[in-house]
Automatic annotation (TrEMBL):
Signal peptide: none annotated. It comes from marine sediment metagenome. InterPro entries: Helicase_ATP-bd, P-loop_NTPase, SNF2-like_sf, SNF2_N. The lineage of its organism: unclassified sequences, metagenomes, ecological metagenomes. This is Helicase ATP-binding domain-containing protein. Residues 36-182 form the Helicase ATP-binding domain. PANTHER family: DNA ANNEALING HELICASE AND ENDONUCLEASE ZRANB3 FAMILY MEMBER, SWI_SNF-RELATED MATRIX-ASSOCIATED ACTIN-DEPENDENT REGULATOR OF CHROMATIN SUBFAMILY A-LIKE PROTEIN 1. GO terms for molecular function: ATP binding; hydrolase activity. Gene3D superfamilies: Tandem AAA-ATPase domain (3.40.50.10810). Keywords: Hydrolase.
Length: 182
């Protein structure tokens, strides 16, 4: 008889039944299905795969699985347009609407399925206020290791405010390929 650890280990490599919803023409890897399956039973979790293994796709696949209709992606500024391309590739929302916030005057789209902004853009009080005025089904924090600053830098203060998150966010997903100290 197989003990519980062996069963969990085997499912981490190849999930027994679960297949994350994905568009035709793209096929997630088995470990991506397993990662989404793992996250489905948790409100908040981290995709900690090594760099280059498709954490962005996993986050979007999770959004598909939970039927998120309003998702906020916060990432480094250099990754905003990459996130937009990946959303167009992996989202199952018909005619998915993305809105990258590239400048402080851009505001936040109330009608977009995905709003993509950067950690530095959260310093803009207008952008932050617009984000806090909306209810988000899914918050994705990419390169989440940027939030671990023990000195309480601006990112940590803005994103991890315990009184803010529960009232505006349904589920929090973090992604980082660099979770250990450098």
């Amino acid at each position: 008889m197989t003990d519980g650890f062996d069963l969990l280990a085997s499912r981490a490599i190849a999930p027994l039944f679960y297949r994350a919803p994905h568009p035709e023409g793209v096929t997630p890897y088995e470990f991506q299905h397993a990662g989404v399956e793992y996250h489905l039973v948790r409100d908040n979790a981290l995709f900690g795969d090594a760099p280059g293994l498709g954490k962005t796709a996993e986050c979007i696949l999770l959004g598909n699985a939970i039927c998120a209709r309003r998702t906020l992606v916060i990432c480094p500024a250099s990754l905003r347009l990459n996130w937009e391309r990946e959303i167009w590739t992996w989202s199952t929302i018909p005619r998915v609407s993305t809105y990258p916030v590239l400048r402080g005057g851009d505001g936040v789209s109330h009608g977009a399925d995905y709003v993509i902004t950067s950690y530095s853009m959260l310093q803009n009080k207008g952008i932050l206020g617009a984000i806090l005025d909306l209810r988000w089904d899914h918050l994705i924090l990419d390169e989440a290791h940027a939030l671990k600053d023990p000195r309480g830098n601006r990112r940590t203060r803005v994103i991890c405010a315990p009184d803010m998150l529960p009232r505006v966010v349904g589920r929090i997903t973090m992604a980082s390929g660099t979770i250990l100290p450098n």
